[in-house]
């Protein structure tokens, strides 16, 4: 397995990024910010974007594993890679996600703990209702992990 830091032509990962954040103009707000990591296991399997939100506090803006490769440990590998990559550069890593059984348990397994929520974030910022697993997403839930 190999993790590559992607500096140019990030747009070519758009399809994968849209799996995690389905509205393209929302992805465009951060696609060229921070660091983008792509995990390859011969083929491209996962991608992730991390931004330093405030000094020493990093935020995962997007992480997605290709549908054919989900549930095989790639997302976990990439997040553990991020912890190693950032641990000497800061204090915490956080992630914001919808209140969904498809994502919260994934982050909790990796040691993230509930931090706070932004009420109605999905309703207020997206141009259409976002459903995950049949559930309408409303609040953005933030989870945090200290290095
Ligand atoms: C969420 C996502 C990135 C997880 O990546 P993945 O490569 O499928 O996850 P992994 O296989 O590495 O899973 C790591 C661990 O989390 C667990 N896990 C993953 N999703 C889970 C879920 N919905 N419920 C319970 N456990 C889950 C796995 O069982 C595994 O546990 P283990 O370490 O005990 O074996 C992936 O499902 C995805 O791309 N989803 C669509 C995009 C998305 O929603 N991104 C997140 C936006 S906030």
What would your notes on this structure say?
The chain is 24% helix and 39% strand. The protein has five helices and nine strands, in the order βααβββαβαβαβββ. The strands form two sheets. Strands 1-2-3-4-5-9-6 form a seven-stranded mixed sheet, sandwiched between helices. A two-stranded antiparallel sheet has the order 7-8. The model has no long low-confidence stretch (mean pLDDT 97). Residues 19-20, 46, 63-65, 70-76, 97, 101-103, 105-106, 109 line the site of coenzyme A.
What is the fourth-level CATH superfamily? Gcn5-related N-acetyltransferase (GNAT)
Instruction: Describe the strand arrangement of the main beta sheet, using strand numbers.
Output: 1-2-3-4-5-9-6
Q: What fraction strand?
A: 35-45%
Class from helix and strand fractions: alpha+beta
Helix content class? 10-25%
Ligand inventory reads: coenzyme A
What series of H and E elements makes up the topology?
EHHEEEHEHEHEEE
Domain count: 1
Shape: globular
Helix segment count? 5
Low-confidence stretches: none
Task: Summarize, please.
By secondary structure, the chain is of the alpha+beta class. It is built from five helices and nine strands.
Offer a few descriptive terms:
about 150 residues, alpha+beta, Aminopeptidase, 7-stranded mixed β-sheet, about 40% strand, binds coenzyme A, globular, two-stranded antiparallel sheet
């Amino acid at each position: 397995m190999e993790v590559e830091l992607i500096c140019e032509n990030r747009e070519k990962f758009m399809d994968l990024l849209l799996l995690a954040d389905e509205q393209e103009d929302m992805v465009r707000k951060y696609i060229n910010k921070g660091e983008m990591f792509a995990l390859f296991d011969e083929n491209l399997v996962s991608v992730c974007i991390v931004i330093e939100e405030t000094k020493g506090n990093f935020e995962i803006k997007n992480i997605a594993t290709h549908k054919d490769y989900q549930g095989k440990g790639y997302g976990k590998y990439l997040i553990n890679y991020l912890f190693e990559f950032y641990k000497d550069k800061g204090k915490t890593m956080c992630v914001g996600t919808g209140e969904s059984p498809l994502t919260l348990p994934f982050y909790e397994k990796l040691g993230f703990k509930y931090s706070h929520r932004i009420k109605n974030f999905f309703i207020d910022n997206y141009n259409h209702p976002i459903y995950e697993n049949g559930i309408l997403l409303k609040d953005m839930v933030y989870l945090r992990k200290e290095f």
